[in-house]
Amino acid sequence: MSKQNTKVKILEAAEQLFAEQGFNHTSLREITNEANVNLASVNYHFGSKKSLIQAVLARYLEIFMPVLKVELEKVDAQTPSVEDILEAFIPPLFSLNKLGKQSAKHFTVMIGRGYSETQGHLRRYIVTEYEAVLKLIMALFAKALPNISNQELFWRLHFSLGALVFVMSSSGALEEIAMADFSEQASTQAIVHKVVPFIAAGLNSQTNYPINQHSTDQIGGSL
Q: What is the CATH T-level fold of the domain 57-204, as seen in this structure?
């Protein structure tokens, strides 16, 4: 087996296991068993588990980010609405399926796991490698939501990411329920389009709820 084939096998095995089990609960031994390679191969190609995690995400980001940049620049050429900006993420997301039929789902789930499992190195990696695209995203949302502070936008965008992660990770179940209960055929991509107005409504909300207004200490103290 060539070195390149070994590297690809490790990446594909890691992608599958990270998406299914999470980063923290997947060992290098499990990855090597799934890829049918020895542990020395992981150390040779990646050096560490953190580097392997970044390499798995890099495979997606190298496809996703350039396509996203093009879509966002199209939106930037007009007066953008929140829905326009959100819709711009859909073609790049599903372009990832050229890597595998579940790749868009795996990518979204792993981005979510990067937060839920506190993988700070992933955020630093993405910010460092794709700073220009991230700045364009924030500039577009600031233009579309001029009355929303950066602090409030931080919360709303992360809540929006949570909604997308749920939709992508649960798309199979949602498709089955829609068919069983309503005789409605819904592809994963159609479901993502369907959630855009819902997320946009939250981002556009004029209600600003201070995050420290009802802290855990205050609630606990009132019981």
A: Tetracycline Repressor; domain 2 (1.10.357)
